[in-house]
Design goal:
Lyase, Ornithine Decarboxylase, Chain A, domain 1; TIM Barrel; 2 domains; ten-stranded mixed β-sheet; 10 helices; 20 strands
Length: 422
């Protein structure tokens, strides 16, 4: 049970607390000014479209998806993804996985190395408390196995651990750099009691450039390594599980990795994408990446942006400049600045696109600098109190700035809400 109250940014502080599941019954409308802005919101229609679109894509490739829960850290959104057909949910660390386990996620991939004793203590306790849950995590180094051995010896732990070997890319993130290193690691795992090798993992997102020839060749090379290594492990009977997992996939070039992810193995196996940002998409970075996906697959329609941040014009201090009531505390800025999409007057039931000359050029902690043509007609100039809806780039770093988000219909009436737990 999540009770929203005055401690939640964006919740009306003069109202009595409201249970999250009852938010849609309050009759709130953002265009009527019922909630304080800035506020990040999710558009229900786009969420529904993206869930269905990605599930159709995975089905067409005979793949499953375990979307990255680290994108939203929202149990309500996890369940929407699972109900749409997701095989499980991926996370980046034990803390995040704990949120999933406590909220009923049955299968979890921790797409990262686990080696700290405190994390292993937590994971062991979670697995003992929730014995029906399966958790996989990554290994890529003998030193990590040494740490696992030291932990087990110091705790006399009998908890079985299931792991995936990560194959990495030179100069990029974690993962074994060559097949010999990875195979030696797999052999040692086989010789280690209560640690079972159950598959192979990689992350191709660092290869994305939107240069089709480059991206296709780079992903094909990586996935050939993954398939060859999995076949080598199978030949030596190094996998100890009923089903072997091959998993990859960020949110930028998932179509390319999907073409090579179906396991080429004799034993029962499953290919799993881990894309997470597809659920809300965005208006800049992933929009550009999905345009490239659409070109490669010759699609008329891909994903729709669902996440917006609404703010108010709070000051017009000089010609050509207005300040919005949102800033770095409210919206992502690590990849691109937000983009102004639409405007509305409080009490009006419709929005209008912003003029082309409106541009957000900078952010402070609590302010956004909206520049516009000082010589434009008055009807094209922002005014104090006006509502401005902005699109974002990179949903992960917008979600982590909020503890809740309302779901809204296409007229910005609140119909539901989700909690967020970073």
């Amino acid at each position: 049970m999540t009770l929203l109250d005055a401690t939640y940014k964006g919740f009306p502080g003069h109202l009595s607390p409201v249970e999250l599941s009852c938010v849609g019954q309050q009759g709130w409308s953002l265009l009527e000014g019922h909630l304080s802005l800035p506020l990040a919101v999710l558009k229900q229609s786009a969420i529904d479209h993206n869930l269905a679109w990605m599930q159709r894509f995975c089905k067409s490739k005979n793949l499953d998806i375990a979307p990255h829960g680290k994108t939203s850290m929202s149990p309500e959104l996890f369940h929407r993804q699972l109900n749409a057909g997701a095989w499980g949910i991926s996370f980046a660390n034990v803390f995040q996985a704990g949120l999933g386990i406590r909220h009923g996620v049955p299968r979890i991939i921790i797409a990262n190395q686990v080696f700290q004793h405190a994390d292993l203590d937590t994971l062991a306790a979670l697995l003992q408390e929730h014995p029906s849950v399966t958790v996989y995590f990554l290994v890529d180094d003998m030193a990590q196995l040494d740490a696992l051995d030291a932990w087990r010896a110091s705790r006399n732990s009998k908890v079985p651990l299931t792991v995936l070997i990560e194959l990495g890319i030179a100069g990029k993130r974690t993962g074994c750099r060559d097949a010999a290193q990875a195979l030696a690691l797999a052999r040692r795992i086989k010789a280690t009691p209560r640690i079972s090798l159950c598959g192979v993992e990689c992350y191709e997102g660092a290869l994305a450039t939107c240069n089709h020839d480059h991206d296709k060749a780079a992903v094909a090379e990586l996935m050939t390594r993954v398939q060859s290594f999995a076949q080598a492990c199978e030949a030596e009977d190094l996998f100890e599980c009923d089903e072997i997992l091959l998993t990859a996939g960020g949110s930028a070039i998932f179509d390319l990795v999907a073409a090579h992810l179906l396991p080429l193995l004799k034993k029962s196996a499953r290919g799993i994408l881990r894309s997470g940002c597809y659920l809300t998409h965005d208006h800049v970075h992933y929009k550009q990446m999905l345009m490239c996906v659409g070109q490669r697959l010759q699609l008329r329609e891909t994903l729709k942006p669902a996440l917006e941040v609404l703010s108010r014009v709070q000051s017009c201090p000089e010609p050509g400049l207005s300040l919005l009531s949102m800033g770095k505390r409210d919206v992502s800025f690590d990849l691109d600045l937000p983009v102004a999409l639409w405007r509305a007057s409080v009490g009006h039931q419709s929005t209008r696109p912003v003029p082309a000359h409106w541009q957000i050029t900078a952010l402070n902690d609590q302010h956004a600098y909206l520049h516009f043509d000082a010589h434009a007609p008055d009807e094209e100039k922002p005014f104090v109190g006006q509502i401005v809806g902005s699109g974002i780039s990179h949903p992960c770093t917008t979600f982590d700035k909020w503890r809740w988000m309302p779901l809204v219909d296409d007229h910005y009436k609140v119909i539901d809400a989700v909690s967020i737990h970073f």
